[in-house]
Amino acid sequence: MSQTVGVLALQGAFAAHIAILESLGVDTIEVRSAEQLADVDALILPGGESTTVSMLLERFGLLEQLRSRIHDEQLPVFGTCAGMILLAEEILDGRADQHCLKALPMSARRNGYGRQLASFETDLDIDGLDEPFHGIFIRAPTVERIGAGVEVLAKVDGQPVMCRHEAVTVASFHPELSGDARLHKRWLVDAGLIPA
Question: What is the domain range of residue 61?
Answer without folding.
Answer: 4-190
